[in-house]
Amino acid sequence: MIRKSGMCNWPPIWTTTRHDQNDKPKGEIGTLQQVLKNDLFKHRIFLFIDYQGRRYMGSMAFDDERFCSEIYSVIKYRVGYSIKEIGDLDLSYTL
After folding, report:
1. CB under 8 Å to 87, separation ≥6 — which residues?
2. For 40-82, how does the pLDDT look when each residue is reduced to its tens digit (9 = 90+)?
3. Which position among 42, 61, 70, 95 has the lowest Cβ density within 10 Å, counted as fewest Cβ atoms?
4. Distance CA 74, CA 40 (A)
């Protein structure tokens, strides 16, 4: 999933939910714990994962609000799945 700007959405860029600014794991890592969508950010989804016993947050931004809602609907039912499993989903039907 690539935005018009060329920015790639997947995998999300993970950031720590603690104070260690150098703790930035990369890739399709961890297990999905929570997915949030907020009315203030209609084009963005927030993902929370557990990786090696720590909590991380990432986000996915979209150009199209409707597509963002579709992806949110798919991902919100995948809590407990690994991020790798979610990344391997076939979403070609959304095109």
Report:
1. 10, 11, 28
2. 888 999 999 999 999 999 999 999 999 999 999 999 999 999 9
3. 95
4. 20
The answer to whether residue 93 sits within a structural domain is no
Q: Is residue 62 part of a domain?
A: yes
Alpha helices in the chain (DSSP H): 65-75, 83-87
- Dist. CA 23–CA 48, nearest whole Å: 15
Most confident of 2-6, 17-21, 31-35: 31-35
List the one residue out of 38, 58, 37, 31 whose CA is nearest residue 47.
58
Q: Which residues pair with 45 in a beta bridge?
A: 37, 60
pTM summary value: 0.88
Determine contact, residues 57/31, Cβ cutoff 8 Å.
no
Match 């963005």 to its residue by tokens. 44
